[in-house]
Q: What sequence folds into this?
């Protein structure tokens, strides 16, 4: 089995689906000859031709519109939005058009589109590149939102996303692109959307997280283990829809939980998870469910981001409050 | 000695020269007289009669729709009178396999392209079945977000190009729509990819109440295509022969691999913006209205066809009768559509319902059974 970085696993998934289905198209800004600014589409234009993998003019709404229109001709588009901070330029195509295609037409048309986009802090980008804007997407009925945390998951989830007959927003955390390698099978495999993964089992506390914060959570779990606590870590992998069963089963076992997100506290992914827990499992809880999040400011300028972003120490601190409640 | 090149030091002159080149293309003048013999499109007498019939039919449809709306029997409705040549003569230049992406005023084109009238009425009433486009009818539901249809049309046309289809995507917006970012992105992408698309801007002089001259400093909307590097035409949008000719020409070039075209049809909407409370007397005078009414597409086309001896009062009366009858039938059919349920809508969010919608489906199934 190959040891791949997450970016390589993503390229592998794109290659797999370009090979499997001639209706799959990959396009966006600089995805052709350049292979994407992060090289996610490295070599794909050469392998599959300019008809299948192509550069677009620099305009996100135009890219979104292409995806809508290509759906009407039976294509399965995988456009790249170069950085997710640019999503505001393509919000109508996502929320006003793609997300409503099936609904608006009573099922006559659908939009099998996977929008890939890098996001996430810790890599010292200029403004509007790193923001966690996934809440904008989870507030949009009609799309699914996937955020992988490992190379293995990235490949299996991206293949599932491309094969899905509804629009999927596939967000790739920039810090995870090359920070470590993981085992990725060469053959194709899928990981179902809407299914969380228990990344570590434990009995005293459940940490629910996604994206880069999964790794901070795992670090925190190790720290806590040294102090005698057995901590379970759930990687949501899909934040819309949530995998309620996995969350509730775990909370019913551990009776204590915290939710960790890189996004601002007011971006309500964690809030939603907590609401679901309180509606479905409040009698299992021995302590309030707390959140570890970033502050409710705009994503900070890069010199302040390491402090602004939640880390394993913040998680350990919150975990202890819940564990000793 | 090297001669100094100062041509670019007079950018105003460049602009002026470009703007002067956009003369309004016309074939049939307001009096119903041919003013451009060479450009007369190749349409048989039967086709001319068919186009006139559709225009008369659609004028009746507009009148009936307005009155049905006033009776509370239709919902959202954007009047079309005055724009028949712009809408129907352009659609008349299409083939069945061409794909229309309409704005919300462009319901007539998609009806003549195959959407059953009863479904158009359901769209007006806010029933999802109105947008359930039947298999083989190449149209998209009317777009509500002004300009979004232009970026999408480029996507449809790109798909056609990739499939090697001999067909085009055609989209409509208005003078207001030409101020949208999506207008520019749509025509620019279309030019960059050289896709088979035709973009029509129906310049009906007002975006709700905002007059054309407040939209842009550009003398014409047609000239905006130049910046995208695509052929552009300014046409009398109340002249059905001219609209047909330029659309047909644009379609032929698109099919021939020569890329997209932007067409500005200069026209006028006689009625309000929509039937939801717009009052045109707040922003335009009855003098202006009557000036434009003199240019009426039906009046001039009727004169032309009467002179040719292929149209008379009886022909027209028969079309009106047919229109009224079919509208009545379509309303009856729309009335017979099942009541719209929230459960139907829930089931159209995703191919498979996630847990939350499954739970909500159960809730609304119970609620709607009471």
A:
């Amino acid at each position: 089995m190959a040891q791949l970085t997450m970016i390589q696993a993503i390229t592998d998934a794109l290659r797999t689906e370009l090979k499997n289905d001639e209706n799959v198209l990959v396009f966006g800004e600089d995805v052709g000859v350049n292979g994407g600014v992060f090289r996610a589409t490295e070599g794909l234009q050469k392998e599959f031709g300019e008809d299948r993998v192509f550069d677009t003019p620099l305009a996100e709404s135009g890219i979104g519109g292409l995806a809508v229109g290509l759906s009407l001709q039976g294509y399965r588009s995988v456009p790249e939005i170069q950085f997710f901070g640019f999503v505001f330029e393509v919000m109508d195509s996502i929320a006003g058009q793609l997300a409503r295609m099936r609904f608006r037409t009573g099922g006559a048309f659908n939009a099998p589109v996977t929008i890939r986009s890098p996001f996430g802090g810790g890599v010292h980008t200029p403004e509007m590149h790193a923001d966690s804007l996934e809440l904008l997407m989870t507030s949009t009925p009609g799309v699914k939102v996937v955020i992988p945390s490992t190379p293995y998951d990235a490949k299996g989830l991206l293949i599932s996303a491309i094969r899905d007959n509804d629009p999927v927003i596939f967000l790739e955390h920039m810090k995870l692109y090359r920070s470590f390698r993981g085992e990725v099978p060469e053959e194709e495999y899928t990981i179902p959307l809407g299914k969380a993964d228990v990344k570590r089992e434990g009995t005293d506390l459940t940490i629910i997280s996604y994206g880069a914060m999964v790794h901070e959570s795992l670090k925190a779990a190790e720290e806590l283990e040294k102090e005698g606590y057995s901590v379970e870590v759930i990687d949501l992998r899909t934040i819309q829809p949530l995998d309620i069963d996995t969350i509730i089963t775990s909370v019913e076992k551990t009776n204590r939980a915290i939710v960790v997100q890189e996004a601002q506290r007011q971006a309500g992914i964690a809030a939603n998870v907590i609401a679901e827990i309180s509606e479905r499992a409040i009698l299992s809880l021995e302590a309030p469910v707390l959140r570890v999040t970033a502050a409710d400011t705009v994503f900070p300028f890069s010199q302040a981001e390491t402090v602004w972003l939640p880390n394993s120490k913040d998680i350990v601190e919150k975990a202890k409050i819940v564990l000793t409640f | 000695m090297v001669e100094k090149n100062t041509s670019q030091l007079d950018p105003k002159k460049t602009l002026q020269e470009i703007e002067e080149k956009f003369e309004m293309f016309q074939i049939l003048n307001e009096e119903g007289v041919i003013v451009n013999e060479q450009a007369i499109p190749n349409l048989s007498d039967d086709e001319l009669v068919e186009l006139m019939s559709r225009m008369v039919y659609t004028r009746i449809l507009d009148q009936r729709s307005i009155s049905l709306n006033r009776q509370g029997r239709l919902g959202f409705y954007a009047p079309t009178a005055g724009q028949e040549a712009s809408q129907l003569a352009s659609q008349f230049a299409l083939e069945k396999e061409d794909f229309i992406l309409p704005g919300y005023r462009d319901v007539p084109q998609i009806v003549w392209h195959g959407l059953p009238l009863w479904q158009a009425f359901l769209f007006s009433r806010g029933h999802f079945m109105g947008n359930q486009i039947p298999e083989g009818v190449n149209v998209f539901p009317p777009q509500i977000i002004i300009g979004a249809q232009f970026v999408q049309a480029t996507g449809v046309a790109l798909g056609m190009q990739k499939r090697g289809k001999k067909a085009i995507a055609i989209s409509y917006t208005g003078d207001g729509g030409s101020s949208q970012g999506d207008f520019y992105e749509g025509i620019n992408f279309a030019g960059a990819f050289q896709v088979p698309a035709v973009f029509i801007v129906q310049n009906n002089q007002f975006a709700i109440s905002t007059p054309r001259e407040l939209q842009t400093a550009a003398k014409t909307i047609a000239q905006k295509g130049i910046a995208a590097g695509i052929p552009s035409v300014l046409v009398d949008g109340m002249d059905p022969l001219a609209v047909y000719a330029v659309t047909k020409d644009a379609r032929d070039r698109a099919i021939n691999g020569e890329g997209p075209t932007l067409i500005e049809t200069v026209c006028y909407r006689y009625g309000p913006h929509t039937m939801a409370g717009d009052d045109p007397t707040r922003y335009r005078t009855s003098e202006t209205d009557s000036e434009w009414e003199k240019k009426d597409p039906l009046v001039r086309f009727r004169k032309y066809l009467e002179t040719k001896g292929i149209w008379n009062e009886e022909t027209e009366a028969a079309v009106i009768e047919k229109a009224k009858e079919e509208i009545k039938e379509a309303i009856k059919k729309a009335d017979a559509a099942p009541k719209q349920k929230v459960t139907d809508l829930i089931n159209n969010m995703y191919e498979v319902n996630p847990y939350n919608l499954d739970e909500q489906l159960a809730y609304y199934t119970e609620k709607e059974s009471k």
In short: The beta strands of chain B are 99-101, 169-174, 197-203, 206-207, 210-211, 232-236, 261-266. Chain B has a mean pLDDT of 97.
